[in-house]
Amino acid sequence: MVSVTSHSSELRELSSENKQNWKTSNDVLILSTKSHVEREKRLEGVEEEKALEEEEEKEETEEEEKEEEEEEEKK
Question: Polar residues bias: where (predicted)?
C-alpha cells in the first residue's frame, strides 16, 4: 500500500509540473505571437509609407514633366 501511495504522490507531482510547464510554454507562445504581430504591423506601416512616398514622387515627376512640356510649347 505504501508504494501505491508513493506512486500516486509522484504522479500528482508530475502532473502539477506538467501543468506548470504547459502554462509557461503557452505564455511564451503568446508573447512571441504578440511580438510577431507587432512586428508585422510595423512592417506594414513602413511598406505603406514607402508606397505613399513613391506615389508622391511619381506625381511630382509627372507635374515637372507637364511644366517642361508647357514651357517648350510656349517657345
Answer: 18-27
Q: Which three cell numbers stand for residue 12?
A: 500528482
Amino acid at 72: E
Q: What share of the chain is helix, strand, coil (3-state, %, to 5)?
A: 95, 0, 5
How many angstroms from the chain centroid is the CA of residue 39? 3
- The predicted model scores a pTM of 0.51
Euclidean distance between the first and final Cα of the chain, in Å? Answer: 110
Residues 48, 14: Cα–Cα separation, whole Å: 50
Cell (9 digits) for 52: 505613399
CA 47, distance to chain mean position in Å, is 13
Confidence (pLDDT) at 2: 55
